[in-house]
Amino acid sequence: MIILGIDPGLRTTGFGVIEKNGSKLGYIASGTISTDAATDLPARLKVIFQGVAEIVRTYGPDCAAIEKVFVNVNPQSTLLLGQARGAAISSLVATDLLVAEYTALQVKQAVVGHGKAQKEQVQEMVVRLLQMGGTPGTDAADALGVAICHANSRDALALLGTLAPGLRGLSMKRGRLIG
Amino acid sequence: MIILGIDPGLRTTGFGVIEKNGSKLGYIASGTISTDAATDLPARLKVIFQGVAEIVRTYGPDCAAIEKVFVNVNPQSTLLLGQARGAAISSLVATDLLVAEYTALQVKQAVVGHGKAQKEQVQEMVVRLLQMGGTPGTDAADALGVAICHANSRDALALLGTLAPGLRGLSMKRGRLIG
Question: Least enclosed by CB within 10 Å: which of B55, B96, B150, B168?
Fold first, then answer.
């Protein structure tokens, strides 16, 4: 099972690809997609869209997870971030991948064990959990964290045996089983 | 020259396709892409992405224009609208279409002649300018308005004769010639 995690942003979108074999997690790849702030918005969204598409083509993930973004104090920034996230999700769903969504809180809880973790703690735990040789940048580490969060969320489901598609979609979306 | 106009929204995305022959404008098609509020966000963005892609396949526009959205009083709504717009733009740029952006003010000025026009006035003028037999809904009318705005903006460029791609991109982006 190959899982792609995405940490969306207009300037920098982080990505992380991990492998899950039983309860073991392994690192495959991670990095960032950067856009040029000097180009117009459609051009920047195109870079994000095509970058994510290339990652999907290269690593062939079985599923994807993306971080939910929070509302910025600056409404214009919120609008730009929303558009970047829309481009990344579009690229994933265009290839019929199922896309789960997790809040930063859920990711920190899954990776570090509590929701108040700093970015550096997420980096450290990602390196440890995936037995990485080096430390990824914060955006790539966050994306790997989203992928780990999704891998752990699927663990809970495995306990229930075979699940109906509807239930699986529900639980993947919320990060935990509902009802 | 076939121009596609888009009025983006998460619940309803309006589209309008017009033809420009010299200074004459003609109506080709318009309508809306609706998403089911009961489905999750990635599924709704997929409907928008695939809907726009189908319109592009069906009508083969030479260029596209999309309305700039304003920041909502509700930040969460701003974030959702941003993602919907990101999905629509992704679908356009994925097919290598050039995408121009216009504010609602620019569209109203181009269609009605002043920026304080009501939605009904935009509908009326769109019907008159395109000699339509019936009245489109407000979302479709807004999308046709965006296409008309883009058609008029290109008129200004035609006066200058052949333009370098960079200059053309600049003027298309801003809706008027700069410098």
Answer: B96
